[in-house]
Amino acid sequence: MSASIQIVGPIYCVEAIAISSGIRELATLRKLFGRARWRKLKGIAFVQLPSGNVRLCELHWYEAHGIGKRKMKIKRFIDEHGTEH
Question: Fewest CB atoms within 10 Å of the CB: 14, 24, 30, 57?
Answer without folding.
Answer: 24
